[in-house]
Input
Amino acid sequence: MYDYVKNEHGHFVCPHCNKTKRLQSTMHYHLKTHDGPFLCPHCTKEYKSESNLRDHILDCHPAQNQQKRDIFICPVPGCAHESKSKGNRIPHSLRNHCGNVIEAYELFDNQSQTSTCSLCQVEYKNRASYIYHLAQCLVNHQIFPHELLRSVI
Output
């Protein structure tokens, strides 16, 4: 569906706006933003991605929609956290059930405001991206700060 082009650094380049992404999957989702706008058939809102429009309809127009939104519940016994997406359980789990694991593996640079994973040395400008990365990196390195970490990834 999309053509993926790499630059001299091995990063994928968007043919529409020249943004670069390290991963093909990330570029795939970026390219989808150029397919929009996606207009809500029930109101005047518009979205860059079809999935954001779908979420809007499920949240704001449930009476006009037959589909029900899935709710993702934290698998830790006694935790009442619920989320609209499975991916939101990753930062919740690391922040609330894994002690100080985020800080333990983070090399934070105050000057550049970047977070680097001490396990693999990958640098992130966005702390949320670092947290998602850290969850998978811990599993890849067979480090489990909580026995249920695998179930949320």
